[in-house]
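Reproducibility note. Readers wishing to regenerate the assembly model reported in the main text can use the exact inputs given here. Chain order matters: entities are listed in the order in which they were concatenated for prediction.
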Amino acid sequence: MKNNFVKLAGILFLIGAISAGVLAWLNDTTKDIIAQNEAMASMDPAVLEAVMPGSAVFKEEDAALIDTIKADNKQFINLLTAVDASGNEIGKVVRTLSTIKGFNGDMELYVGFSPDGKITGTSVLSHSETEGLGSRTAEPGFMNQFIGKDASGEISESDYDAISGATYSSKSFLSAVNNAIAVYTEYVK
Amino acid sequence: MNKFEIFKNGVTRENPILVQQVGMCATLAITTSLVNGIGMGVAVIAVLTGSNIVISALRKYIPDEVRIPAFVIIIAAFTTIIDLLMHAYTFELYKALGVFIPLIVVNCIILARAEAFAFGNSVLDSAIDGLGMGVGYLVAMILLSSAREILGNGTILGFRILPEAYEPMMMAIQPPGAFILLGLLIGIVNYLSRRKKA
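Running the prediction on these inputs yields the following structure tokens for the assembly.
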């Protein structure tokens, strides 16, 4: 009986160890490609254009400032400076999670601000909303209504059109935009 | 059973979705657009075939008492492999399928085939069985997800096929629509298969 027990455990251990070995190797080989994919998705020219028309690249801000904001605002991810092709600074971009959960979780957004304090555009970096329904918050038809909105105060629910049938997703999106406005007014303006 | 019979069995007579009706959770949730349906179907084919082959190859070494934990480890390993590969090489699809890839682990069809077929049959037969069941799953996913995308969004693979004037039937892409359309689909399949027999 005792022998049998050891044998069973041994075989399970072996299967587990081999699986872990294969996965460790695969994780190692795909790690860089995955990181590159994620980085490219957030630096895709189409995304930059949607958030801040005319920008060529988003530059990192001072790390100390980022850390201060992070300590203060849990949903905040990054603050970036949008730079055009000839190197001129054309605005600020806030990367943030939503403060209100969507239908299935947090949404992650870029929100761009022009120097005169207006929203230049938004882009959804990741979401887990229902495909074909809540996912429409990531489409221009919904997002474009935020362009040109004044970032001097929070956008209230009466100031925008939610997507019918996707109220939670729309609210979640709005909460992310408002969090970006909060960060912008507090630390940039 | 000859090789072709094993394959055909999975696609038609024992189709995992339309006849056995297992693994409904992901099926109902993911089929909101055809791209998702195909992506999920292909991922399931890969995991199912892979785990069937390995489990069949190891069947003489895995003691009966611990076969279920052993199956779960092997299936989880294959799912993680697919997850990593999709994340690395088909990034867009990976983003769309999101949480459903890890959920393949608990898709009962995979554990069911390991237990009912791969544990007692040769490697080649098990591979064919995995492939057949997987293709059956894919076919059902394609039928259901195209119906939902056309009715609920007026598009197929993102291209508009119904005129703008068509008011999308919102319910088709919401959860109740999934149940209703799947029910209708199973009804049609039953009707056709009975008529064939008669």
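We highlight two features of this model. The first helix of chain B runs from residue 3 to 11. Residues 3-187 of chain B form one domain.
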